[in-house]
Design goal:
18 helices, 2 strands, 1% strand
Length: 511
């Protein structure tokens, strides 16, 4: 019979664990209510701020409503889209969560305000023709429906833990509202075809490039007997490539409002950046190598500072490039409400950009950690070197895609890079097992033979363990399928939601 004292202790332990779980769930719920409350306060502040900008405009109610929806959209961009820029840095422990939130908030806001576009297309990427809109009022309704649909879809994606593209959400919203307002013939289907192709192109390019750089670093540094000497030789080279890539990336995408340069100038800027970053990194690595141990962890630490810089630069470029696109419908509503005309290109008022920048920062701080953990920790295990490869792949992929005129999503690229390094590690791990397992038994046989022999020689439970571990999975399939599914349905889901919202707005105004 069991010891009564032991049974009592076990029962007490179970009760204590239940209490701890209950307290934790209660705390998380209360924190969630606080975050929602702060979000509501932010939207009330946007309401007041937007009302101060309208004056005596006839359509001021539309501008105020659009400002609130734009603030809600910005909150969701901060909660979802920004995670891709800092997630790998947090997952690799190059940055703490607090540090990542501070850096992302500062650089996203700076990118939006300092380098965000002065002018945006009222219809993102030319999805539909604005001239086909019956009148200005219908156009305003369509833009409000598109903006709200994109924001709602981003909110849902954040709730289920799927990082999705802000740009694709806006594209879907505009397409759905445009079809509801003017008919299916208004859609520019060739452009939509290119965007659909980017669902595959973006993550594939990001994943392949990230895996190739990780393979290069493993071969040239980690697999070398003298890792310190190899690091002195190759780390400055790859960090120099990163410096060159990010300088070109920022000039092409993040600083296009401030700097207008041609292709030759961009290449010269990239070359100069490579030389400068190479020698700075070489000095740093040479100094650190004097006390470095000849092991992998020592090499990983050399990539921590480059990772921090990459997170900041990615955030700045994202703020400059994507935020303006996200508030484009809001700018279009303000322009049409003020002038009474439908323009193909409109200026972005400073107050609209401020709403976008503030909303992104607030959404990031309040709700961003969930997606940051998904990208940085839950898909696959990252260290500073792997995260460096993801960031480098993001910059290079955008440069290649922009040069070729391919529409790609920075979200898909970054997450694709994380999957790329994870699947590459999984491939190496399983290939190594196929080689090591037979040698362990002193025979040149296949893995299937090893398992069969283990069944005969070992206890049954030991054989099951060998079978179970025969193929390691270093990428969580649950996140792979969830994120892939969210990517595929983003445009149609946002489109369907926008069409429904437009019809609801139309019906409300008709009544």
């Amino acid at each position: 019979m069991s010891d009564p004292a032991f049974q009592k202790k076990t029962s007490l332990d179970k009760d204590l664990k239940k209490i701890v779980r209950l307290e934790r769930a209660t705390l998380e719920t209360s924190q969630q209510f606080v975050k929602i409350g702060l979000s509501v306060l932010f939207l009330v502040a946007v309401w007041i701020f937007a009302a101060m900008q309208t004056g005596a405009i006839d359509n001021s109610a539309y501008i105020i409503a659009a400002g609130i929806i734009g603030g809600y959209m910005a909150l969701n961009i901060g909660a979802n889209d920004v995670a891709n820029n800092v997630g790998p840095a947090v997952g690799s422990k190059a940055l703490t969560m607090v540090g990542a939130l501070i850096i992302a908030a500062i650089f996203e806001s700076s990118g939006a305000i300092l380098a965000g576009g002065d002018v945006v297309k009222t219809i993102k990427n030319g999805i539909i023709d604005p001239s086909l809109m019956p009148d200005t009022q219908v156009f305003i309704w369509a833009m409000m429906a598109a903006l709200l649909a994109a924001a709602l879809w981003l909110n849902l994606a954040t709730y289920v833990g799927a990082p999705v593209s802000t740009t694709h959400s806006i594209v879907g919203g505009v397409m759905g509202a445009g079809i509801a307002a003017t008919g299916i013939d208004a859609v520019n289907w060739p452009t939509m075809g290119k965007i659909a192709a980017s669902w595959v192109i973006s993550p594939l390019m990001g994943g392949v490039i990230a895996a190739l750089f990780l393979a290069f670093l493993k071969f040239t540094i980690l697999n070398q007997e003298d890792k310190v000497a190899a690091a002195r030789r190759w780390v400055p080279v790859v960090v120099g490539i990163m410096g060159s890539s990010f300088s070109m990336y920022l000039v092409m995408k993040g600083l296009k409002k401030l700097i207008k340069v041609d292709a030759v100038s961009i290449m010269i800027i990239g070359a100069v950046a490579y030389v400068v970053v190479y020698f700075i990194t070489k000095y740093f690595v040479d100094r650190e190598s004097l006390t470095m141990e000849n092991r992998k962890k020592s090499v990983y630490q050399l990539f921590v500072i480059p990772m921090i810089f990459s997170a900041a630069l990615l955030s700045f470029a994202h703020g400059a490039n994507d935020v303006a696109n996200a508030v484009g419908p809001l700018a279009a509503i303000v322009s049409s409400s003020t002038s009474g005309d439908i323009a193909s290109n409109v200026g972005i008022p400073l107050w609209v950009m401020l709403v976008g920048a503030a909303g992104i920062s607030a959404g990031l701080v309040l709700f961003g950690p969930k997606l940051i953990r998904t990208v940085g920790e839950k898909i696959t295990k990252l260290n500073p070197m792997r995260a460096f490869c993801v960031a480098l792949a993001a910059a290079i992929t955008v440069i290649i895609a922009s040069t070729l005129g391919l529409p790609v999503s920075s979200t898909h690229i970054a997450v694709g890079g994380v999957f790329g390094v994870g699947l590459y590690r999984e491939f190496l791990s399983n290939r190594k097992r196929k080689v090591v397992a037979p040698k362990a038994l002193g025979a040149e046989v296949s893995l299937e033979d090893v398992i069969e022999e283990a069944d005969e020689l070992l206890m049954e439970n030991q054989a099951r363990k060998i079978k179970k571990s025969a193929k390691r999975k270093l990428v969580r399939r649950q996140h792979l399928t969830t994120i892939a599914a969210a990517w595929v349905i983003t445009v149609p889901a946002a489109a369907a939601l926008a069409a429904l919202l437009f019809k609801a707005i139309e019906a409300a105004n008709a009544g």
